[in-house]
């Protein structure tokens, strides 16, 4: 078990009775409410000092309602210190009004407009999308990159084009763990890490493996590549709860990483589990 406080940089919460999430339909594990009380139960015994909520692919017509709901939850549990909301960044500079509306919430820290689900691998290179992401700099917001390994080549071009916006790669870029494929993902990770404004979230790894039959080594070698590429100054922990429970329990995930980080110095451990998260998402420093 980690011996330092944890900032969870990737928390999902939802209630399908409140808001619509089409992607949950038919998923026997996920298609039910996951609330703060459920998260507390899943993380019992861990020192979760703060959390960052990540948008949950709510019906796009309800993205403002999702942000409003999370802001209200943060009043109930002040550990929710950050909100990464959805916004229609493909509108280009016209997204300013949408961002201004979201910025009413003082916990807003960034935007995630998922790239992974776009059939067009060039989506992230469209001029309007790049202009929309560039607009985040005007609001002091970061961008969460959510892709899978198929998008890595274009993500390199995309991230390089917008150095003024801090970015973080979710789920280590979702490599093809189930197939056991390492390249070209590993080389592309090193290229992405060469961009100083890009960070990496160690999250969602087991979900990319065989949910029922993965072994620890299957995950560890990909985690090792990500940490080696970005270094302990630009990697951070993410729980990806409850999506990850399809493949791994929360405590199992933290224990796996704790074992993987055995022998790492205390300063680097603190950076991984909380310090980098506080710095990137501009959270209250832990005392």
From TrEMBL:
GO terms for molecular function: hydrolase activity. Residues 7-283 form the Amidohydrolase-related domain. Its EC number is 3.1.1.-. Signal peptide: none annotated. Keywords: Hydrolase. Belongs to the metallo-dependent hydrolases superfamily. This is L-fuconolactonase. It comes from Kaistia hirudinis.
